[in-house]
Amino acid sequence: MIPVTIPGPERAVSTDAVLELRGVSHTYQVRRSPFRKSVPLRAVDDVSLCVHRGEVLGLVGESGCGKSTLSKILLGLLPPSSGAVLIDGAAVSGAGQAAFARRVQPVFQDPYSSLNPRKTVAQIIGLPLAVHGVGDRAGRRQAVTAMLDCVGLPRRVLDTYPKQLSGGQRQRVAIARALIMRPEVVVCDEPTSALDVSVQAQILNLLTELRRELNLGMLMISHNLAVIEHMATWIAVMYLGRIVESGPTRAIFERPRHPYTRALLQSVLTTVPGHGIPDPLPGTAIPNPVDRPAGCAFHPRCPLATDLCRTVPPSRVADARQGGFVECHLFPAGEAEAA
Ligand SMILES: Nc1ncnc2c1ncn2[C@@H]1O[C@H](COP(=O)(O)OP(=O)(O)OP(=O)(O)O)[C@@H](O)[C@H]1O
Predict the structure, then answer these.
(1) Cα dihedral 134, 140, 142, 147 sign
(2) How large is the angle between the packed helices 137-150 and 167-179, nearest 10 degrees?
(3) CA 116, CA 80: separation in Å to the nearest integer?
(4) Do the beta carbons of residue 97 and residue 137 sit within 8 Å?
(5) 13 and 50 Cβ atoms separated by less than 8 Å
């Protein structure tokens, strides 16, 4: 593995980086009322990140910070307004989009609504093969049967319907459907939050085993920081569309640099497991992304904000001691290197 440094603030990537965003932004046009002109809402703002083969990138942040928009861009479901999506170093656009979609697959939060109730398990898992014209009927059934073994489901479920399965079994079906095209990256958006606590660990363990066996890259979005700590190799912390801190999981949990990351982690100490991220800074509202605060977007909620924070947007600085980067004026210059 030859380390290759790429321009920008993101981690020094190695040649096993499979999926990459470079300076990606996405702006929605929203109307505040039917009588007013639409205004831009920048849901994702200049995000650069890498998903590596065999590694899990954890994405955390409060509701509305832009995680779903980012995952749609990574899945090729939403074109970025600006910036580039690269797979194996090549920018994805136009005709490459279909091949890209095959290589990056989603596992959604809710296995109750993400599976078609009128299709059998065999039809659900085999659908991507049929859509892409892979193999004949018998070959597809064989591939589906092999995939059932992979995700720990008995073969007798092949001709059953989702309603006949438990929540954990349905999520295994959803994972099998995601993997049937042999993707290189799986985007898991809250993959266990709709499941009973008793089966959550089983699904996470299954994802870990599959990641190792298939050398999969994963993006794991979760409100549950314990899940992220357990699963992720690297973490990106998102606030109002920007990645404000990024680094190796252990370093982020042991030595968070950004005041927002610290608040997020502290709020978890007071939460009930499985109930998501509570307000990390009680009494302070998340600003409306249509009216982004001047300077650092976090300053209205930051207990340490200075005049500089209120007026000048912080630049990203590489964290020389633990890798990754931080976007905060308060990050000590002695620990940083300009990115
Ligand atoms: N289709 C859309 N049109 C207009 N605005 C949108 C659209 N989708 C999302 N937004 C806005 O973009 C911002 C980011 O939303 P997004 O759903 O990506 O965040 P999120 O972190 O995934 O939130 P959650 O955890 O609640 O799903 C929010 O302010 C949201 O209201």
Answers:
(1) positive
(2) 120
(3) 29
(4) no
(5) yes
**pLDDT for 269:** 57
Task: For residue 5, give every residue at least 6 positions away whose Cβ sits within 8 Å of its Cβ, in sequence order, or none.
Answer: 12, 13
**208 close to ligand 1 (CB < 6 Angstrom):** no
pLDDT of residue 240: 95
- The dihedral built from the CA positions of residue 120, 125, 126 and 130, taken in this order, carries a sign that is positive
Atom 20 of ligand 1, nearest CA residue = 64
pLDDT at 91: 87
Parts of the chain with a pLDDT under 70: 1-15, 94-96, 268-279, 282-283, 333-339
Q: Is 90 in the pocket of ligand 1 (CB under 6 A)?
A: no
Of the candidates 278, 228, 256, 266, which has an alpha carbon nearest to the alpha carbon of residue 322?
A: 256
Give the bridge partners for 326, in sequence order. Answer: 245, 317
Spacing, Cα 167 to ligand 1 middle (Å) = 26
Q: How far apart are CA 114 and CA 181, in angstroms?
A: 18
| C-alpha span between 240 and 266 (Å, rounded) | 19
Listed residue (62, 70, 153) closest to 115, CA to CA: 153
- Residue 315 is encoded by which pair of tokens? 């630049």
Of the residues 28, 219, 244, 279, which should be mutated to test ligand 1's pocket, given the most ligand atoms within 8 Å of the CB? 28
- Ligand 1 lined by 222 (C-beta under 6 Å): no
Supply the pLDDT for residue 331: 85
Q: Are 13 and 52 in contact (CB under 8 A)?
A: yes
**CATH for 3-338, among 3.40.50.300, 3.30.70.2740, 3.40.50.720, 3.90.1310.10?**
3.40.50.300
Q: CB neighbours of 171 closer than 8 A, spacing ≥ 6?
A: 107, 111, 191, 192, 195, 199, 203
Give the per-residue pLDDT at 134. Answer: 87
